[in-house]
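Intended use. Records like the one below are meant for learning the mapping from a protein sequence to its folded structure. Do not use them to infer anything beyond what is encoded.
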Amino acid sequence: MSVLNIPADARRAFDALKSGGITVFPNDVGYTIAGGSAGSLQRIFETKQRAPTKLNAMVGDMQIHNDVHMLDSRGREMVSAIVEDYDLPLGCIAPYRSEHLLIKALDPAAVTGSTKEGTIAMLINAGPFHAEICKLSRAESFPIFGSSCNFTNTGTKFRVEDIPQELLALADVVVDYGLRKFHKYQRSATLINFETLEVVRVGSCYELIADVLARHFNVQLPEAV
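Structure written out for the chain above:
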């Protein structure tokens, strides 16, 4: 018997998002604070004391990535190798289809705060809860955007008890699944622009991702610092 009820917990969090609320939920790379409306994302932005250059990331799976992101075949093969063949979490940045239902469903102000120069960041393959809430996002054409549940530049939080109370107080639903899988890294997801191959953030599993790209695509990422 499972000690977790992921479908029910994801449904509860998703319903709060759809009603304009805010949720805190678990990913393998830490806890996320998320919204699905301009108002909820603005409240998160202000409470986190987030710099204007810091953007939200879309919560997505491989189907959402393939449908929303625009990449050439080599870029898609790289993402697929990392996520599907090697089962690693990834923050993928790429140009996006503005006509996609998940993008059109988002308030224009929220689009502005979640995109940069025609690209959108998307967290892919971040654990079972992440996969379940992505299924709901796809099925009901409701976009979810979020960021690490911490104040800016204070480090990713891997336990709910380490999250600042000001952020927990924002949330209509908090899903607590304890210590997260990649806590040893003390970093959120690695972020890579797969159009330019620029490393935007060195994060969890970076050395594993770099090894995949070097081994299979002859792409040499910079050393982690």
